[in-house]
Structure formats: C-alpha cells, structure tokens
C-alpha cells in the first residue's frame, strides 16, 4: 500500500512543488506523513494500518523532490550537478542510518 500510494502521489501531485514552493510542499507532505505514521501506531485494525501506510506513502512521496528543489536553488548554476549529487548522497545516507537506529531504539524499549 505504501509503495502504490507513493507512486500515485508522485504522478498526481508533482506540480504542487512549483505551486507551493519546495519548503511549503515538504511541510504539507511531512504533516501528511506524520498523520499516516500516527494511524499506523494507533491502528486498532489491519484496515486502518493499511490506510496509514498509504497515507505515509503519500506524505513521503514529495519530500525528496521538494527539498531537492530548494537545495539546488542555493547552489551556483555551474555546480548544480554536484549539488544534486551531494543532496542525493546525504538523503540516502540519512535513510540508511535512520532505519537501523529506530529499530535498535524500538528493540531497546521492549
């Protein structure tokens, strides 16, 4: 459900970044993602959990491109390729570290 909603949101709402601006689009998307994660956390049934996963996918879908637009705006035009590469590397690194760290925290609380 997460992946399907992620892809559909990317296809349907990609113009939102240009309309709202990168930061505003990212804030809205993060708020949607938080709602989805709260639904997952508090879900009393698998249906609500699936809806939460879908909402999380919708929320996360535009965070990367929205923040990427803003990151590239601050880089001089001749260096934009390098700027986008650095942005991609650090975003991927953050995702790679966050999962195991959150898993370790969750295991420590049991």
UniProtKB/TrEMBL annotation:
Domain named Major facilitator superfamily (MFS) profile: which ranges?
1-110
* Lineage top rank: taxon: Bacteria
Q: Which SUPFAM superfamilies does this entry report, sorted A to Z?
A: MFS general substrate transporter
Say which species the protein is native to: Pseudomonas syringae pv. cerasicola
What's this protein's name? Major facilitator superfamily transporter
- Write the record's keywords in alphabetical order, separated by commas: Membrane, Transmembrane, Transmembrane helix
> Where is the chain membrane-spanning?
20-41, 48-67, 87-107
List, in alphabetical order, the Gene Ontology terms for molecular function in this entry: transmembrane transporter activity
């Amino acid at each position: 459900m997460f992946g399907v909603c992620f892809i559909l949101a990317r296809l349907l709402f990609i113009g939102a970044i240009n309309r709202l601006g990168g930061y505003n689009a990212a804030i809205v998307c993060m708020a949607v993602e938080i709602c989805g994660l709260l639904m997952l956390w508090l879900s009393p049934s698998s249906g609500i959990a699936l809806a939460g996963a879908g909402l999380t996918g919708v929320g996360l879908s535009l965070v990367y491109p929205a923040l990427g637009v803003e990151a590239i705006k601050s880089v001089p035009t001749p260096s934009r390729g390098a700027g986008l590469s650095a942005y991609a590397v650090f975003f991927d690194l953050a995702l790679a570290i966050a999962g195991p760290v959150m898993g370790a925290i969750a295991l420590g609380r049991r």
